[in-house]
């Protein structure tokens, strides 16, 4: 339940990046021994990947304050399988494929389905592993991958897919010889994964550029790694202060990871100051229209899109937002309309005519970012907004309501039921 609360003030610690930590946890499969991950957010997706690793024979323990200890057994004790039960909960479980193929020479994975924002195939992953010498077959909804031993190769991605880049990179580090990934994703989380793999003994060059070169090594050692801050979480708090007004310091947020977004947010009318410790956002709640297109990094990320549309719903003027990554990622727009937003959808574009305030309504979160965008919208909606499906938000945000409340938001969690369960997005 959210009520309009006026301006937000204070400081919020930005947690570790969901879209990095899930891959880092999978990467631990590459080396026997005890790994330490720090700055791990307490979110549902991390718990699901922990369960996935446990079913592979790995021990995962949460030592508190974001410290996770992962003990990976010798190869013969690893069970390289990901069941439908877990894969259907989290699509990102596909990232165990690369490490398991590299380590065990086979993998069995339930076929990930579509999700709440459209079809998300894994053909680039499969093509990449095939180039490294794996073969695949399908039976009863499961995908079986096998190899006599991966060998380095040239992989050209049709699109700079984030998770395909991560997955192929993890397969290549233990492959024999040299792999080159062309048209690689350049996301900061890819760099984070590469830097952890390098600290484990991998030979990787070019992470963060479109061409990643990997010289395979026979063995890696366990990692001790700090997860980078979550740029989408930082953007979510930024959107909250943009619409509600106020002054909030996003402690730990990295300007160099979200440059393009910060430029857009500044042109909307939010004052941004960057420091080595984080980002200060100030807003009077008076926003201006702007046009935005989502693109792979370093462009404006698709994950920011629901937050941007929400900000523009209360901006002065008409904006056009184009979604270029996920065809179905405008489903939440219907919920914003229930709150009085004036938005028209046309294919992968939305036209938003800004209105000064929204109105409270009963709305439903359909995925992580859509859910948090509804929370942001509710901060400037007169009356009460009841958001159901909060479990989606919990997949990617640690105690969002407590942290917003600490900044002055009038928000409470009413149903304990929303703390459990999960769905397939992210
Ligand atoms: N694609 C294919 N085939 C593939 C892989 C991707 O056609 O084999 C297409 C997708 O359908 C999409 C485009 O390529 O149209 C880009 O998808 P990408 O693979 O880059 O997305 P992803 O790696 O599956 C990650 C994040 C998403 C984020 C996207 C884009 C994780 C776990 N997820 O997904 O995060 O939106 O990159 O940056 O890293 C979220 O956090 O809420 C979330 C959805």
UniProtKB/TrEMBL annotation:
It catalyses: phosphoenolpyruvate + UDP-N-acetyl-alpha-D-glucosamine = UDP-N-acetyl-3-O-(1-carboxyvinyl)-alpha-D-glucosamine + phosphate. One of its GO terms (biological process) is cell wall organization. Phosphoenolpyruvate binds at residues 18-19. It comes from the Bacteria. UDP-N-acetyl-alpha-D-glucosamine binds at residues 91, 303, 325. Its EC number is 2.5.1.7. Its main location: cytoplasm. It is found in: Cytoplasm. It is an enzyme of class 2 (transferase). Residues 3-404 form the Enolpyruvate transferase domain. It holds the Pfam family EPSP_synthase. One of its GO terms (cellular component) is cytoplasm. One of its GO terms (molecular function) is UDP-N-acetylglucosamine 1-carboxyvinyltransferase activity. The active site is at residue 115. Keywords: Cell cycle, Cell division, Cell shape, Cell wall biogenesis/degradation, Cytoplasm, Peptidoglycan synthesis, Transferase. Pathway: Cell wall biogenesis; peptidoglycan biosynthesis. Cell wall formation. Adds enolpyruvyl to UDP-N-acetylglucosamine. NCBIfam families: murA, PRK09369.1. Belongs to the EPSP synthase family. MurA subfamily. This is UDP-N-acetylglucosamine 1-carboxyvinyltransferase. It comes from Ferrithrix thermotolerans DSM 19514. The lineage of its organism: Bacteria, Bacillati, Actinomycetota, Acidimicrobiia, Acidimicrobiales. The gene is murA.
């Amino acid at each position: 339940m959210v009520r309009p609360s006026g301006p937000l003030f204070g400081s919020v610690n930005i947690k570790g990046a969901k879209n990095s930590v899930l891959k880092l946890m999978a990467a631990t499969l590459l080396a026997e021994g005890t790994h330490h991950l720090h700055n791990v957010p307490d979110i549902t997706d991390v718990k699901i990947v922990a369960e996935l690793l446990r079913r592979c024979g790995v021990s995962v323990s949460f030592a508190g304050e974001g410290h996770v200890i992962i003990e990976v057994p010798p190869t013969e004790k690893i069970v390289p399988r990901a069941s439908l039960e877990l894969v259907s909960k989290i699509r990102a479980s596909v990232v165990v494929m690369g490490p398991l193929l590299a380590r065990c020479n086979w993998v069995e994975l339930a076929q990930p389905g579509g999700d709440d924002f459209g079809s998300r195939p894994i053909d680039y992953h499969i093509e990449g592993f095939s180039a490294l010498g794996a073969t695949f077959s399908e039976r009863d909804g499961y995908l079986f991958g096998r190899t006599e031993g991966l060998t380095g190769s040239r992989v050209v991605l049709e699109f700079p897919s984030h998770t395909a880049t991560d997955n192929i990179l993890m397969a290549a580090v233990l492959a024999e010889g040299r792999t080159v990934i062309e048209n690689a994703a350049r996301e900061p989380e890819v760099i984070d994964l590469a830097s952890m793999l390098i600290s484990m003994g991998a030979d990787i060059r070019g992470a963060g550029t479109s061409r990643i070169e990997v010289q395979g090594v026979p063995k890696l050692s366990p990692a001790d790694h700090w997860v980078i801050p979550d740029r989408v979480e930082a953007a979510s708090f930024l959107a909250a202060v943009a619409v509600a007004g106020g002054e909030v310091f996003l402690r730990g947020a990295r300007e160099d990871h979200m440059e393009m977004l910060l430029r857009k947010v500044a042109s909307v009318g939010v004052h941004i100051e960057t420091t080595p410790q984080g980002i200060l956002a100030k807003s009077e709640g008076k926003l201006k229209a702007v046009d935005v297109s989502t693109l792979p990094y370093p462009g404006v990320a698709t994950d920011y899109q629901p937050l941007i549309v929400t900000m523009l719903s209360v901006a002065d003027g008409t904006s056009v937002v184009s979604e270029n990554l996920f065809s179905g990622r405008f489903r939440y727009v219907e919920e914003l309309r229930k709150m009085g937003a004036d938005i028209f959808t046309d294919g992968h574009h939305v036209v938003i005519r800004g209105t000064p305030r929204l109105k409270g309504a009963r709305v439903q979160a359909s995925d992580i970012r859509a859910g948090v965008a509804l929370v942001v919208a509710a901060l400037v909606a007169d009356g009460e907004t009841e958001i159901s499906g909060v479990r989606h938000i919990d997949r990617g945000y640690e105690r969002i309501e407590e942290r917003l409340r600490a900044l002055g938001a009038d928000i409470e969690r009413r149903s304990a039921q929303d703390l459990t369960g999960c769905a397939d997005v992210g």
